[in-house]
UniProtKB/TrEMBL annotation, chain A:
InterPro entries given in the database record: E2F-SERTA_domain_protein, SERTA_dom
Domain SERTA, chain residue ranges per copy: 33-80
Organism for this UniProt entry: Aramus guarauna
GO cellular component: nucleus
Region (Disordered): 1-29, 187-216
Sequence ranges of Basic and acidic residues compositional bias: 8-18
Protein name per its UniProtKB record: SRTD2 protein
PANTHER family: CELL DIVISION CYCLE ASSOCIATED PROTEIN 4/SERTA DOMAIN-CONTAINING PROTEIN 2, SERTA DOMAIN-CONTAINING PROTEIN 2
Automatic annotation (TrEMBL), chain B:
Gene that encodes it: Ppp2r2a
Keyword RNA-binding applies: no
Keywords: Repeat, WD repeat
Protein name in UniProt: Serine/threonine-protein phosphatase 2A 55 kDa regulatory subunit B
PROSITE patterns in the cross-refs: PR55_1, PR55_2
Family listed: Belongs to the phosphatase 2A regulatory subunit B family.
Keyword hit for Transmembrane: no
GO molecular function: protein phosphatase regulator activity
A Gene Ontology cellular-component term: protein phosphatase type 2A complex
Length: 314, 454
């Protein structure tokens, strides 16, 4: 657990993401912890996927970046905000390739390097819980959900307007059902995603196919994995779960309720075309999941078709 | 500070600078390794263009007692050429990663130089005489008409202008799937090791068609890979002992007598993480970029991103000394991650062996950004920051200590963290084995500093 001692001052003069480590146990800096984490996650993904060297990339660098991504991923998973809907790239069998590919599931190997305690259980009192989300309900920027969703969606391209509507209607549905912290968390992630989008927009001149950096981690992975594995021969990443695991595991999809909205509209200007297959695969689990009290979100297949039509057919 | 004068403090003075003056750095000129030979008479540099340049120290002029001999170019040769790996459709860089000298056994000098994939043994020999007076050949090499030969004579050697020739005597290739980061010659002077990201191989200097694999950390499933080898070195005295460091901040000491494959370490050196310093970047900054045994072999030094640590081989759980190189960067790690500076591999070195008496009078040196380099004196417990810059280029001018202002009011002559030039990094430094002469490589220039002699 990150020590409670030595509370660090957040240096106003520095870039908001700099300054010392922001402990998630600090008050309002929990948000900046999330922001920092999200930014680091984005940067890490960019490093892996933007790299088009003529020479082989450094294995050490790749390993360190991958470890970083996995750590953040594990952290998010523990917080319940990152659910295993990661795409598994159908990796080409490459017996000749001795190149490094990112790890298979088994989060067990991550326990050696926890940044946060691994004992995140719901019985933990809210105050000592390190999940930024659960403490964000006190934050003032958690305004009404509909307003929030409008924010990041500017400017939505005309083609996607119908999508947005159906999404936001679905979202409205969710918000009635979801507990406040979840929506606050989603809002925070969205906001973080947008901030990081702004932060990174100028540095992201060259993009690999299918990787808009404004998305949150989850949607990024959904979109970018299948295509990129073909190209980046030595930096495969995030093949965390097989499709079977996804399909037959219980999934808390509450976070994902908000992500499609953000990604579909807020990042519209930078979004690369998502193939129908990819979208279908990522969204399929939702439709096959039994609805539990904590997972009220359902997406009709008809809505799915509609979305796909819009995204792909237009 | 060192350099404040008095006592045993060294006062470092500018001596020479080699390399292009203009700010526009040609990629091929980027210096990638610096190494003195065992006597200190020769100083070798390798660059990104695959070339090796060797400087030789002038013999001390007895009348000029105020300075030691200057280093002048002795030999330049193309060690490695770029290659293309057709299997992976990737270029193999010709950049020289490491140079290691062999101890001199005869008139010729030998060194090992390596790029990412291939190690070469080079022989550097002098030719200052040539045979003259052949019977069948003219001096220019043309053959004489045998019928014109009326007398016979014995060819004799006559002096000629010194010519230094470098020739590759051995090529050790095709033994590394990953990028070679270290080579180290054994104290038996017959074998050496080469280490890449996942494996360490043992070679015999005479045999090029095979090597023994002594460490292999490649997992069966590459997707489980989380740690790589970053540096390796043989013990200076025990020919069966070597260490290798990892990207997770650990150092493993292995004994080759224990088994053929030294996957199980004899000792594991690791310092527990300071929880108050933990951040997203803890692992990355703990990655060890260099490991060097002390000349006695009792200690070893490791360099990670922010610090230099000295370890006693008898104590595995923590270093005996930790020196902060540029702690002010700790708050900048996110930016340094973004611009990749956090992956810079700084080297470190000990002062000369003759000067070290066990743990006393040890000084270690390492580089930093803004063309700064740092020295830590174990004896006086003092440290100093100096700058390698052409501005201080008057010989025998004592270098002025530099100071970085981490935060708050910047004093006169201090430089603030935000003004540091992260493109000007000193990754490679070397210390003369016997004298207080140091070689410091900036991006494309080589600086030589000496202590002020009276």
């Amino acid at each position: 657990m990150l020590g409670k001692g030595g509370k660090r001052k957040f240096d106003e003069h520095e870039d908001g993401l700099e300054g010392k480590v922001v402990s998630p146990t600090d008050g309002p800096s929990k948000v900046s912890y999330t922001l920092q984490r999200q930014t680091i996650f984005n940067i890490s993904l960019m490093k892996l996927y933007n790299h088009r060297p003529l020479t082989e990339p450094s294995l050490q660098k790749t390993v360190l970046i991958n470890n970083m991504l996995r750590r953040i991923q594990e952290e998010l998973k523990q917080e319940g905000s990152l659910r295993p809907v990661f795409m598994t790239a159908s990796q080409p069998a490459d017996p000749l390739s001795d190149n490094f590919r990112e790890a298979q599931p088994a989060f067990s190997h991550l326990t050696s390097q926890p940044l946060l305690p691994t004992d995140f259980v719901s019985t933990t009192p809210l105050e000592s819980c390190l999940t930024p989300a659960s403490l964000l309900e006190d934050d003032t920027f958690c305004t009404s959900p509909t307003v929030q969703h409008d924010g990041p969606t500017k400017p939505p391209p005309p083609a996607l307007q119908p999508v947005k509507d159906s999404f936001s209607s679905a979202l409205d549905e969710i918000e009635e059902l979801c507990p406040a912290p979840t929506s606050a968390e989603a809002v925070a992630v969205e906001t973080a995603a947008d901030d990081s989008k702004d932060h990174l927009s100028e540095s992201n001149v060259q993009k690999p196919e299918g990787l808009p950096e404004s998305r949150t981690a989850e949607s990024k992975l959904m979109d970018s994995l299948p295509g990129n594995f073909e190209i980046t021969t030595s930096t495969g990443f995030l093949t965390d779960l097989t499709l079977d695991d996804i399909l037959f595991a219980d999934i808390d999809t509450s976070m994902y309720d908000f992500d499609p909205c953000t990604s579909a509209t807020g990042a519209a200007s930078k979004m690369a075309p998502v193939s129908a297959d990819e979208l279908l695969k990522t969204l399929a689990p939702y439709s096959s999941q039994p609805v539990t009290p904590n997972q009220p979100f359902k997406m009709d297949l008809t809505e799915l078709d509609h979305i796909m039509e819009v995204l792909v057919g237009s | 500070f060192l350099g404040a004068g008095g006592g045993n403090d060294i006062q470092w003075c500018f001596s020479q600078v080699k390399g292009a003056v203009d700010d526009d750095v040609a990629e091929a000129d980027i210096i990638s390794t610096v190494e003195f030979n065992h006597s200190g008479e020769l100083l070798a540099t390798g660059d990104k263009g695959g070339r090796v340049v060797i400087f030789q120290q002038e013999q001390e002029n007895k009348t000029q007692s105020h300075s030691r001999g200057e280093y002048n170019v002795y030999s330049t040769f193309q060690s490695h050429e770029p290659e293309f790996d057709y299997l992976k459709s990737l270029e193999i860089e010709e950049k020289i990663n490491k140079i290691r000298w062999l101890p001199q056994k005869n008139a010729a000098q030998f060194l090992l130089s390596t790029n990412d994939k291939t190690i070469k043994l080079w022989k550097i020999s002098e030719r200052d005489k040539r045979p003259e007076g052949y019977n069948l050949k003219e001096e220019d090499g043309r053959y004489r008409d045998p019928t014109t030969v009326t007398t016979l004579r014995v060819p004799v050697f006559r002096p000629m202008d010194l010519m230094v020739e470098a020739s590759p005597r051995r090529i050790f290739a095709n033994a590394h799937t990953y990028h070679i980061n270290s080579i180290s010659i054994n104290s038996d002077y017959e074998t050496y090791l080469s280490a890449d990201d996942l494996r360490i191989n043992l070679w015999h200097l005479e045999i090029t068609d095979r090597s023994f694999n002594i460490v292999d950390i490649k997992p069966a499933n590459m997707e489980e890979l989380t740690e790589v080898i970053t540096a390796a070195e043989f013990h200076p005295n025990s020919c069966n002992t070597f260490v290798y460091s990892s990207s997770k901040g650990t150092i493993r000491l292995c004994d080759m007598r224990a088994s053929a494959l030294c996957d199980r370490h004899s000792k594991l050196f690791e310092e527990p993480e300071d929880p108050s310093n933990r951040s997203f970047f803890s692992e990355i900054i703990s990655s060890i970029s260099d490991v060097k045994f002390s000349h006695s072999g009792r200690y070893m030094m490791t360099r990670d991103y922010l610090s230099v640590k000295i370890w006693d081989l008898n104590m595995e759980n923590r270093p005996v000394e930790t020196y902060q190189v540029h702690e002010y960067l700790r708050s900048k790690l996110c930016s340094l991650y973004e611009n990749d500076c956090i992956f810079d591999k700084f080297e470190c070195c000990w002062n000369g062996s003759d000067r070290q008496v066990e743990f006393f009078s040890i000084i270690v040196m390492t580089g930093s950004y803004n063309n700064f380099f740092r020295m830590f004196d174990r004896n006086t417990k003092r440290d100093i920051t100096l700058e390698a810059s052409r501005e201080n280029n008057k010989p025998r001018t004592v270098l002025k200590p530099r100071k970085v202002c981490a935060s708050g009011k910047r004093k006169k002559d201090e430089i603030s963290v935000d003004s540091l030039d992260f493109n000007k990094k000193i990754l490679h430094t070397a210390w003369h084995p016997k004298e207080n002469i140091i070689a410091v490589a900036t991006t494309n220039n080589l600086y030589i500093f000496q202590d002020k002699m009276n």
